[in-house]
Amino acid sequence: MLKKNLEDICNRQVEREGYSSSLYLSMASWAEVNGYSGVAEWLYVQSDEERMHMLKFIRYINERDSKALVPAFEKPETDFSTVEALFQQVLKHEQFVTASINEIVALALEEKDFNTYNFLQWFVNEQIEEESSASIILDKLRLAGNDNLYQFDRDIMSLRTSAPATPATT
Ligand SMILES: [Fe+2]
Ligand SMILES: [Fe+2]
């Protein structure tokens, strides 16, 4: 069984990954309504990935004979000023999630729970990618996108580096 403090912090991450999924879904909807169909597509895929991250935590917690709890998620914002502001928010959110994952890694080491430590390595790597893809998008926007959002919107899906489908469990 997971120690109670690890069970709690993993359940906190269930909530954070689920909230990420809702946030990106809300952003996708905003982008779609405002005519940015490429940005919307990118965010819909991102939202699915976050749901998959949540599932990974749920299944890991249960696999360790503990109990995953599915919480209510805070209502995400529904309006975003510009595409660039939206992606700045994505980057900031991913940095927050990275810090959150790192806290769990630190606790797993402190408690000498090497299974959990191992499980978390996938997320450690994933967060490098998540932050880097948000940064790359912001770079592209600064380079040419703000003057040519049509082209940026058309090409954004080609900036995806990771394979979209990853299995729900490790
Ligand atoms: Fe995530
Ligand atoms: Fe993420």
Give a verbal description of the structure.
By secondary structure, the chain is mainly α. The chain is built from 5 helices and no strands. The chain has helices at 4-33, 37-63, 83-110, 114-145, 149-155. The longest helix is centred in the last third of the chain and has 32 residues, at 114-145. The protein starts with a helix and ends in a 15-residue tail after the last helix. The model has no long low-confidence stretch (mean pLDDT 93).
Q: Which terms would index this structure?
A:
binds fe (ii) ion, 73% helix, elongated, 170 residues, mainly alpha
Give a short summary of the structure.
The protein has helices at 4-33, 37-63, 83-110, 114-145, 149-155. The protein has 170 residues and is an all-alpha fold.
Task: Give unreliable regions as ranges.
Answer: none
Figure out the total of helices: 5
Rg for CA atoms = 17 Å
**Mind describing the biggest β-sheet?**
none
Find the structural class using helix and strand composition. Answer: mainly alpha
Ligand roster: fe (ii) ion
Proportion of residues in extended strands: under 5%
Mind sketching the topology for me?
Blueprint: H1 4-33, H2 37-63, H3 83-110, H4 114-145, H5 149-155
Helix pairs in contact: 1-2, 1-3, 3-4, 4-5
The protein binds fe (ii) ion (FE2) (2 copies).
